[in-house]
Structure formats: structure tokens, C-alpha cells
């Protein structure tokens, strides 16, 4: 196994408040890791830290390189990000939005090339977003827009993908499609996937490992079968959990 994300004693303060405290964790190449935890625990901030968006204390190594010292375009060739909310009104056609995923490879001196067009077409094909290519982003439904954001991240062709609540607000069919798509990208393309997920059943079903953050600290880190249990979840969310028989959408083979 080879570690592609490694944080050591990661600390971060924002607006005079300590948000992340001494987080040390490792993600191995090819893993699918879900991050769970209460609202305001620091999950999104942790993800944004991994993208080099904040001046942190401690260490974050992405593919062996310290994040704060990495060239931003090089980092963008290694790690892509699908943010939590998509309420920005991009006045752009879907195709052009997905092409923005190629920004680490483009520059004023290097215009769009065949390999960029092919990467965009592949990403739109696998996410089933090609039929929307001429539509404006703001005309898409929430679920359609979510898949377009994932297509843009895929077009970036990075070995690591971070996603912040990729299936929240989607109906069951679209949740299922997005989660299956991520698993396919993980297993078929070998991408390392790290996703924040508030749906504990979904996190248990799709991930290899679960990391729980509470009050800015890493509280739990382990197998879904060990962590998605009443006692660890009570400790994490400070409420009682009982096991019930649940219904979930079937996984297509
Ligand atoms: N720029 C900032 N300045 C000050 N405080 C911030 C800033 N960004 C985030 N925070 C605070 O950091 C804490 C963690 O926020 P974060 O968005 O990471 O939580 P989260 O675990 O992702 O929550 P949720 O599940 O509700 O999305 C919150 O208390 C938030 O208000």
C-alpha cells in the first residue's frame, strides 16, 4: 500500500477559533474513505485544507509532497474536489463548465488540445451528462448539476478525488446513481475517493473505511462494520442509535 494523503498533527484556526486539532490520518492509494461527523465538526474545512486552501500548522502530504509547498497546478493534477453546494450561477454551457476541469493542463499559451476534448468526452460519457452539453448550468436540476460537477472533477484526471456530501439533496435514484458512479471510478479507474457523507447507511455500504471527526478532532477511524454501530455513533453524535431493518436502493451489477 502507498499513502497518497497523510496528515500529521494538522491544526487550523480561522477567525481566531481553532477549527481542526491535531488530526493525523493516512489514506492509502485506491481506498474509498467516508468522513462522517456532526454539523460544524470541521469535515469541510478538513477537505479544503487538503486542497491547500488554508495556512495550516502541522503537515499535509499529498502524493508525497507537502501541500503548502506544492505548485498549485501540480496539486490540481493530483487532487480534484466536488464542493458541498452548487448555488453559484455559472452563466456557462455544461460542456464549457466540464472543460474548466482541464484548467491545470491549459494556459494562454497551450490552448485546448485533442487530449483535453477526449478527457471531457470520457468524463461526460461515464457520468451520463453528454445529453446536457449545450444546456446552461443554471437550467439543470440539482441531481443533473451534481453529476456535471463530478464530470468536471473527472475531466481533471486526478488520482485523488475529494467530494463534500456528493449525494445530499438528491432523490433515491440519483443518490444511488451518484454513489455507484463514485464506486465505479474508485474500482475501475483506481481513483482514491474521500467523501463527506451524512448518510451513515450509505457510508457503511460504499466505503472501505470510515473516519469520524468531532469538534475538529479525529474521533474514530476504522472499518464500517466496526464504526457504524450504536455505541461509536452515540459517542460521535451524542444521541441514541438503534438497529432497524432498512430499505436501500439495489446496487446494479
Ligand atoms: N472562514 C471561517 N471563519 C471562521 N469560522 C469558520 C470558517 N470556516 C468554517 N468555520 C467554522 O468552522 C467550523 C467547522 O465548519 P465546517 O464547515 O468544516 O463543518 P462541517 O463538519 O463540514 O459541517 P456540516 O456538516 O454542517 O457541513 C464551524 O463552526 C464553522 O462555523
From TrEMBL:
Keywords: ATP-binding, Nucleotide-binding, Translocase, Transport. The keyword Cell cycle does not apply. SMART domains: AAA. The keyword Kinase does not apply. GO terms for molecular function: ATP binding; ATP hydrolysis activity. It holds the Pfam family ABC_tran. Residues 5-240 form the ABC transporter domain. InterPro entries: AAA+_ATPase, ABC_transporter-like_ATP-bd, P-loop_NTPase. PANTHER family: HEMIN IMPORT ATP-BINDING PROTEIN HMUV. Part of the ABC transporter complex HmuTUV involved in hemin import. Responsible for energy coupling to the transport system. This is ATP-binding cassette domain-containing protein. It comes from Tichowtungia aerotolerans.
Amino acid at each position: 500500500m502507498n499513502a497518497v494523503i497523510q496528515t500529521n498533527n494538522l491544526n487550523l484556526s480561522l477567525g481566531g477559533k481553532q477549527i481542526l486539532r491535531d488530526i493525523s490520518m493516512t489514506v492509502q492509494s485506491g481506498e474509498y474513505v467516508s468522513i462522517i461527523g456532526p454539523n460544524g465538526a470541521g469535515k469541510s474545512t478538513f477537505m479544503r485544507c487538503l486542497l491547500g486552501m488554508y495556512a495550516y500548522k502541522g503537515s499535509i502530504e499529498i502524493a508525497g509532497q507537502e501541500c503548502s509547498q506544492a505548485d498549485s497546478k501540480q496539486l490540481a493534477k493530483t487532487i480534484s474536489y466536488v464542493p458541498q453546494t452548487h448555488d453559484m450561477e455559472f452563466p456557462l454551457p455544461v460542456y464549457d463548465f466540464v472543460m474548466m476541469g482541464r484548467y491545470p493542463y491549459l494556459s494562454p499559451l497551450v490552448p485546448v488540445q485533442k487530449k483535453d476534448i477526449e478527457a471531457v468526452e470520457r468524463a461526460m460519457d461515464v457520468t451520463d451528462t453528454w445529453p446536457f452539453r449545450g444546456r446552461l448550468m443554471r437550467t439543470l436540476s440539482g441531481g443533473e448539476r451534481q453529476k456535471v460537477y463530478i464530470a468536471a472533477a473527472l475531466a481533471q484526471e486526478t488520482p485523488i478525488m475529494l467530494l463534500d456530501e456528493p449525494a445530499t439533496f438528491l432523490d433515491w435514484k440519483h443518490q444511488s446513481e451518484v454513489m455507484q458512479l463514485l464506486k465505479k471510478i474508485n474500482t475501475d479507474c483506481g481513483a482514491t475517493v474521500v467523501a463527506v457523507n451524512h448518510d451513515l447507511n450509505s457510508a457503511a455500504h460504499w466505503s472501505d473505511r470510515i473516519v469520524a471527526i468531532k469538534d475538529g478532532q479525529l474521533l474514530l477511524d476504522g472499518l464500517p462494520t466496526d464504526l457504524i454501530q450504536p455505541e461509536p455513533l452515540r459517542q460521535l453524535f451524542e444521541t441514541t442509535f438503534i438497529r432497524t431493518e432498512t430499505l436501500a436502493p439495489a446496487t446494479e451489477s
